[in-house]
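ARCHIVE CARD
Drawer: 12
Card no.: 0347
Subject: one protein chain, sequence and derived structure
Cross-reference: see card 0346
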Amino acid sequence: MRPFLASLTASFFFFQLACNVSGKTEDEHSKAVHIPVLKIEARDTVIEQEYVADIQAAKNVEIRSRIQGFIKEILVDEGQEVTKGQPLFILNDEELQADVSKAKAVLNNATAEAKGAELEMKRIKVLVDKNVISSSEYELAQSRLKSAEARVDEAKSSYTNAQIQLSYTRILSPFSGIIDRIPMKRGSLVDEGTLLTTISDLATIYAYFSVSENEYLRFSRSKKEKNTTDYDNIKLILSDGTAYQHNGRVEAMESEFDSHTGSIAFRATFPNPEKFLKHGASGKIILSAAVEDALIIPQKAVMEIQDKSFVYIVNKDNTVRMKSFSPKTRMDEFIVVQSGLTEHDTIVYEGIQSIKEGTRITPQYLDADQLPALNSGK
């Protein structure tokens, strides 16, 4: 009887164990996490990258006084558009007029003395030729003439300098542009170097922005291949988020990379016929690049671990595993894949923090066309 009871007890134990195992498996399936997933597709798209821009006028010059004096006249107003050569300020010139008159008188006197020395030398030459006086007298007369001519040159220099100083009392516009603030007023005493105003030529605007070394290399290759369309039709976004009505083009770059940031500055040129953009404004440059058959994945699906990029791949049995890949370009909301992933891969789109290697999920397939992050470049 006892062997029978022992056999019955063992059978019951294994039956209960089997039921527990079966129940645990069913429970695991019932608890499979519902996770949005995305199948990677190759697509043609346009990638847009934003760069902070420093907007400057093509010409922006400080107008400073070159002499000391009182401001006699202010001939322009702040914000006024002026033309090249137009008078802007007039300083008092009475003392400088007197200096010019004095220098002219000195020049006339020196010229007269030189003329007299020349006549004297000719007279002495006649006497020397007739052997009336010695040749040394003629040589002495030549020396006196050279000395007089040197005084003439010195007087001419002083006269020219006085005229130049007088010309500084009339301050003219170096080019056509718009006048900025005028801090000094009529009657103010200004010293040499005093800032009178600033003038900006706003017909053309420069926008300076810094790009990475990779972007620089792409630009250089495009120029070499004479395929510069990506850089000949760039956009400028103003500080209020609106787009500037004229497109620009990249025309120049700096000669070296910044050792701290690893970036290099580009200069884009924009037409500004309405004088809408002002010197010192801010904005963002938008560079667009067409990419064919690009593998694009959302940024939120990517994990960064020790400078490497990973995603969760969904296996055929709906378990997940981590896979590394190399990004080609990183944008605000998505990444263009360089290598490591294929069109046949399905990745976890959202919820990567709640799963780990080997987790079984219930995939919820998403339509890539409905994801704004993957269609912002269309």
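Annotation on reverse: The chain is about 30% helix and 35% strand. Residues 31-47+292-375 form a domain with the conserved putative lor/sdh protein from methanococcus maripaludis s2 fold fold (CATH 2.40.420.20).
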